[in-house]
Amino acid sequence: MEMKAMKPMTKDNAVDIEKELNLSNGNVSKGVNSVKLSQDEVKISAKDVRVKYGEKEALFGINLDMPKGKVTSFIGPSGCGKSTFLRCLNRMNDTIDGCSVTGQIIVDEVDILSKQVDTVLLRAKIGMVFQKPNPFPKSIYDNVAYGPRLHGLATDKNELDEIVEISLEKVGLLKEVKDRLLEPGTGLSGGQQQRLCIARAIAVDPEILLMDEPCSALDPIATAKIEELIDELRGSYTIVIVTHSMQQAARVSQQTAFFHLGNLVEYGETEKIFTSPVDERTKGYITGRFG
């Protein structure tokens, strides 16, 4: 891929660079989508998804098919709409006053934006891990057992014990906490807390895991463990991750979507996005020209 020489992004030349790359809303293209999936490969299909906060439009007609059993990453500058779109995928935007979402998001042939969809059951099927680890003020055991109890997934304590043990084992936490299960989850390290939150999410046997910058509050060692975990969980779950780190997106994902100013600019195989992007805005972002 041939690149022009890049001048550094400074306060003085930021406006010139935006004009050069046509970054204003009035010049946004419909986006480049090079991911072609068969109907059997698609797990999540977004069709003309638009989000408004009051009168302010935050997402402008997002169309995106995400494959099952793989990791799709969303990248882009702060405020570009990637986390807003992620929250659409399990109706978390419903909890924000004045937020409206239109379009369709099809998961297993069901439009999850329909008013007939039970959001409690939806969020069991589509789990979410947030930027900052947020264990409940309960024991390690009760954090993982909370969802299965709520949804009636265990009929007795032996079944519940098994779910907790399997979930902690999947996230590589069981050996570290097996003698501390009745201690508060908030007493764990930051990386352990995040893995506990992932165990809590998978304890209800979801099909999709959403991760909103799950490593941004963690140190490099804890980040490496979470990335290893994402790679291990891939295949068992469809994973969608928002990340501020392009290096992380390159390491953990198979598909990458680049968002800017509420638009999906480019979506393709991760390797192609980072080595031969089609859109000039994508090139500008991944080479550090803006963002």
UniProtKB/TrEMBL annotation:
Residues 44-286 form the ABC transporter domain. The keyword Nucleotide-binding applies. SUPFAM superfamilies: P-loop containing nucleoside triphosphate hydrolases (SSF52540). SMART domains: AAA (SM00382). Keywords: ATP-binding, Nucleotide-binding, Phosphate transport, Transport. The keyword Isomerase does not apply. It comes from the Bacteria. One of its GO terms (molecular function) is ATP hydrolysis activity. GO terms for biological process: phosphate ion transmembrane transport. Transmembrane segments: none annotated. Pfam families: ABC_tran (PF00005). GO terms for cellular component: membrane. InterPro entries: AAA+_ATPase, ABC_transporter-like_ATP-bd, ABC_transporter-like_CS, P-loop_NTPase, PstB-like. NCBIfam families: 3a0107s01c2. This is Phosphate import ATP-binding protein PstB. It comes from Terasakiella brassicae.
